[in-house]
Every structure is written in C-alpha cells, then in structure tokens.
Amino acid sequence: MKLHDTVAKVTQRIIQRSQTTRTAYLARLDEALKRPPGAQRLGCANVAHAFAALPGNDKLRVVAEKAPNIGIVTAFNDMLSAHAPLEHYPDLIKAEARKLGATSQVAGGVPAMCDGVTQGTAGMELSLFSRDVIAMATAVALSHDVFAGALMLGVCDKIVPGLLIGALQFGHLPTVFVPAGPMTTGLSNDKKSKVREQAAQGLVGRSELLAAESAAYHSPGTCTFYGTANSNQMLLEAMGLHVPGTAFINPGAAVRDELTREALRTVLGKQTGGAAQDVKGTCPPIGRVVDERCIVNAMVALLATGGSTNHLIHWVAVARAAGIVIDWNDFSDLSDVVPLLSRVYPNGSADVNQFQAAGGPGFVIRELLDGGFMHADVLTDRAGGLREYTGIPHAADDGSLQWVTAEASQDEAVVRPASAPFSASGGLKLLTGNLGRSVIKISAVPDDRHVIEAPCRVFDSQEALHIAFSADELNHDLICVVRWQGPQANGMPELHKLTPPLAVLQGKGFRVALVTDGRMSGASGKVPAAIHVSPEAAAGGPLARVRDGDVIRLDANTGTLQVLVPESEWAAREVLPMPDTLRQANGVGMGRELFANMRRNALTAEEGACSWL
Asked: I need a surface site. Which of 291, 401, 533, 570 has the fewest CB within 10 A?
C-alpha cells in the first residue's frame, strides 16, 4: 500500500529538521558499537566487581565463555498495581537466559509513582519531572557497561517515556520493553465517572465514592481506561519495541509468563516464530529502531486510538533523546488525515480488555499499515518487521507461543476498519492565537461543544476553582482559566480533579471550557480543554495577561484560541508576575525542594518539558 501523502510529507520534514542532531546521535551510536563486546571492554577489577554476586556457573559463562549478559532495568514496586506483577519477572528472565547459554542481571531499579494516588495533591507536582529522574536512573543502571542488550520492565505514565529516554542514551544496545498487562474489568469507567460527578455535587458521600473507586481499581495490573499508561503500551507496539501483542494480556493469563521469556529470547535474536519454531535473527540497536519513521508510526497510532494528550509532551522528549525533532504541527497535520479507529474510555464506553478482545493493537496496526498510514519498512525488535505486530499471541496446547493474525473487528462499537472509521480525523487539534499555542483532544467532546465563546474566570490554582464551584459561583456559561500550572511554575501536574466539576456544569447545560498551561490526565474527555498553553504564564506567556471577564473564544474547528480584547489594549496590558506566595508554596514540601533546578531549566511543553537539554 502506498504511503499516504501527508504521512510521507510530515516524515520528510522531520528528517530534514532533524538532520544535524540525528547525524550526531548516530555517530555516537556507531562509536559505541566499535568497542569490544560486554565484559571484554573492562579491566579485571571492574569485571570482578560486576560479576561477584553471580552464581558460579553464570560467572563462568559470562567471563570465560563470553556469553551475552542482558541487563534488566525494572520499575517494580507494589504501590503501582500495574507494576506489582513485575516482581518475579527477573527470575523468569534469568532462568530463560541460562537455558539459552546467556546470563542476565538486574542492572538497576527506577522510581515509579502512581498518578492515581497523587492526583490533586502536592506530590503530583513531582510527576512530570519523575520522567527525567527515571531516564537518569536508567542511565545509571546501564552505565555499568557490561551488557549485550537490555530489558525495560515498566508500564505506567512517566515510567515508559523515562525508560525509553534513558535507553536511547545507550542506543547501541538491543532493547525490548516488557509490560505486565491490564487488570481485569471491574466497575465500568462510565459508572465510576457518574459516581465522581455525584460526589462533586454532594449527592453521595465518601463511603460511596471509595466503594466505587475500589471496585474500579481492584487488582494487580494497569488501570483499564485508555489513559497515558495504556497509550504507552499501544505506542510501543507500533514502534516494534515489544514482543508482538504483549500490551494488553492480563497478569496471570496462561500466556503471560511465556511472553516475558520471549522478551529475553527476542533481545538475544532467538525469537519464537510460526508453529513455535525458533527464528534466528538479530535484535537491532534501539537507536536504529527508533528513527524518524518509527516516531511517526507512534504518533499515528496515538491519533488513531484517541490516546493520551500527555504524549504530545512525552514523545517529543523521546524523539529528542534519539536526535529527532518533532513539534505540535506534526501531530496536528497527521491528525487531519489519520482515521480514528477505536473507541475506548474516555473516548467511548469500552475498556482496554474489550479493546483487546475486539482486535486490539494487532487489528489497529494492520489497518493502519494496509491503509498507508504507517511506515512498513522499519526496523523492529523482531526479524519479521512491523507486520509481526498485527498478530495476537496465545498459548498452544503444549504451552508454546503462537500468533494469530488479527482479522475482522470482533466488535465495531470498539474498533473499526480504516474504511469505516469512527472519524476521518484523529481527534487532536492544535490551537493557536493571541493566547499562545495549545492542544485540545476533541475525540470525546460532543460536536456542539467544539466552539465555546464565553467570559472567563481566572484561577491561580485548581483548588481555587473547586472553592468557587462549591460556592455555586460558576453556574453560567464560562471559560475557566487555570494558570501557573506549567513546567516552570510547579512542575505541570495533571489537573484531572477539575474534570468532575466541569462535567457537572456541562451536564447542567452550561457552555464551559478549560484553558490552562497545565496538563489534563490521559483520561480527560468530554469537556473541551485547551491544555499545555505555551509559553506558560510563569515564563511571561499570554495567560499572565488575562483578567476576569475577558471573553475567550476556543474554536476547535478552525484551530484558534483567542481572547477577544482589542489588539492595542491587549498589547498594553501588564504581564502579571507569578505571585511570590504561590511560587514559594510550590517549592516546599513533598520533596519539591529537590526539583527546583528542574523547574528552573524546563523547556516548554511543546519542546517536551525536558530538563536535560
């Protein structure tokens, strides 16, 4: 299938824009590949330290026989339900390595926080920058430099982008990502959201709300809505960095442990093929796999599935780690032509288990390849290329892995073919105007809410909005401006706790919207929200000029975000500084003191909010 003209055009301009930085990146990768392999690079004392704790047979194998040694970087902790199943993965991997004449070591652990636990609290202000901490921790783990390849164990929001950014600093290593899968279906996401809205109105109390939340989030595994964590998994499938079809297999499923073993076989170039036959091949260096076409494939997969807006920040940072420069124009142009192929909450009522049952990533990738929306001629971790990622894994009678090619959708209310999509466009829009550059996710927003024009109410914190809502001050058409929420102001926390009150106002018939330099959760949905406004208010951006009562027009159809103030008045209006009391409060408590340098040096959201460039 011929590649769609827009996909080809966007890819080519990314290649041209990235020529200098990508060339420099690949030169570093090639220099690393010229070195002697594994432990042969190091002196005797270094080698002795590296393998002192290995069992005798493993030590003999890696030192005397020069067997490949695979480093494991794990984000295991049992605070995150999605990461709790990772506890025993290293044991499975080490045992499989021994069977194949190799060795494996846990190179290091990385921190992993749960945004669900920290939503609406001071701890959430560490969340975005935890991505860069994870990247640095990954680099520390791999800096021991005795590895022939790496396995990355992690699932959730900032963890996967952080692991990926860190792994790309060691672009010469073959690297496979190993997830744990989603928890089984509990209370539906729709019912959970209804209880949250009732709680926001005072119609139910804490006990009822806690019961609903606990029924939704009930066991090991990833949360079942299509937020940032599950978007991570979809993108890794589209980039060819998983064992095919691994993303949404539940913990405890019969095939789960074998998929983990297959990750080790894959990084060694000994993958399982059809009819459980071993396939000899080479797992390429991750820095070669993640090229401009691979990044475009990830962007397309995000748009085609209505994925998390957080990735308009994270995947910009991931691309930069590989010497590739992308921006929101690229996302917007792709969104105009990439069809929306899935409806998963918050863009529908289904959860990721229903998505998987209907065809999952395999179906979506096949449709995008066949429709000319993805590059087929890319390297992946597997010998069969990206077409392998159209397969759905299952266990044969003897327990071995087999893949069945995704065929027709099993539920067209959840996934549809490219010939009959839910929408002809991907549901993300770039907004520009005198309020700066912003993005909006419209795939779940009702059509009659794509344009909102109303007076604004300005808030300096999400808590202030909640207070006004509780005081019944917001019962009218309005646009809520929540500023001082960008990377430099307070670390750019998600503002997911604003969703219930705004949804209540919209449910009452008022025309409401949110405009903010902060983030919304990957679970944001039906209320129109212009987010990531750049430059942010704390950097002197336009939101610092906005005053209560200004009329704002948010128009997702034309892609504009304007404050309707005469140009001369707008130009003359004072840019308010961030209040000292707010800045001081944002920097104290919950460890926020330690992140001051990151806030000070953070790039804009459109530049990935990177603190390391």
From this structure: 570
